[in-house]
Write a structure and sequence with these properties.
269 residues; mainly alpha; 2 domains; flat
């Protein structure tokens, strides 16, 4: 009962903070103070963290099935952006992430967490899962950042720099931040793949082949993007397309494989 109440409170805070901030920006475009968004978001994040811990560490084991893992990833994503917003004006990302978090929490509440999962994880597998979750979280932030960058680039090219753009850093700074996220993400994804090869008995077993294939594809996409950035000078729309392409591959690797195995086939993923 407490988990349900906490989940509902977090959902309402996420949505309420987002709607309040958007309303204030529409009324006064020059106002960029994210005080309410950050304060309410911080409280929602604390509640979100409690819900994530209760879902993942349920019963006697660890539950990394579809919904608990998704709730945990969304928590880490929001934590990364909220902390980053303390030193850089990135709170506009929260307008994308808070509703997504509210949706994720709503789905976990509506659909439940009664999915097949592995009750016990060895230390080595736990390390692999940790690197994987962190990599997915950072790349989720990068994808949201890329969408915001695409909006900013389009508005500037149309000579409409007002509105939400007033609260964003310059385009060049936004691009630099995007590649900071990508560098952090690819390091974590590399560690995830290395620990997977070292600690999993068969990374290409039937239930892991789909996840392994798309994870490697995502690594190649992001590695190519970084190479293109520093050797050819890829920027703006090219960087956005490659970032979203890599994220889609990761989404297929993680959420796609979990949905098929756990929901459709009833096999622990």
């Amino acid at each position: 009962m407490l988990v349900t109440t906490t989940t509902v409170a977090a959902i309402l805070l996420y949505l309420g903070a987002t709607l309040f901030h958007i309303t204030q920006r529409l009324r006064s475009p020059a106002s960029t103070a994210p005080t309410v968004l950050m304060a309410a978001g911080g409280i929602a994040l604390a509640l979100h963290g409690y819900v994530a811990s209760e879902l993942v560490f349920s019963g006697a084991g660890v539950n990394f099935s579809l919904w608990p893992a998704s709730v945990l990833i969304l928590f880490v994503v929001n934590l990364i952006v909220l902390l980053s917003s303390l030193r850089k004006p990135l709170h506009s990302l929260l307008i994308l992430l808070f509703p997504a978090s509210a949706l994720g929490l709503t789905l976990s509440l509506a659909l439940g967490t009664d999915l097949p999962h592995k009750d016990h994880l060895s230390l080595q597998i736990g390390v692999h899962v940790l690197f994987s979750l962190l990599a997915y979280s950072v790349f989720t932030v990068a994808a949201a950042h890329a969408l915001l960058l695409a909006y900013q680039d389009r508005r500037l090219k149309q000579h409409h720099p007002g509105g939400f753009l007033r609260g964003l850093p310059p385009l060049q700074t936004m691009e630099a931040l995007l590649f900071e996220y990508i560098w952090a993400g690819i390091i974590l994804l590399t560690l995830s793949l290395i620990t997977g090869f070292l600690f999993l008995e068969n990374l290409w077993a039937q239930h892991l082949a789909h996840k392994s294939f798309f994870s490697v594809v995502a690594w190649l996409v992001f590695a190519t993007l970084l190479w293109g950035r520093y050797r050819i000078g890829w920027r703006s729309r090219t960087a956005i397309r490659w970032t979203l392409g890599g994220f889609i591959s990761l989404a297929l690797a993680y959420w796609g494989s979990k949905f098929v195995l756990e929901v459709l086939l009833g096999v622990p993923a």
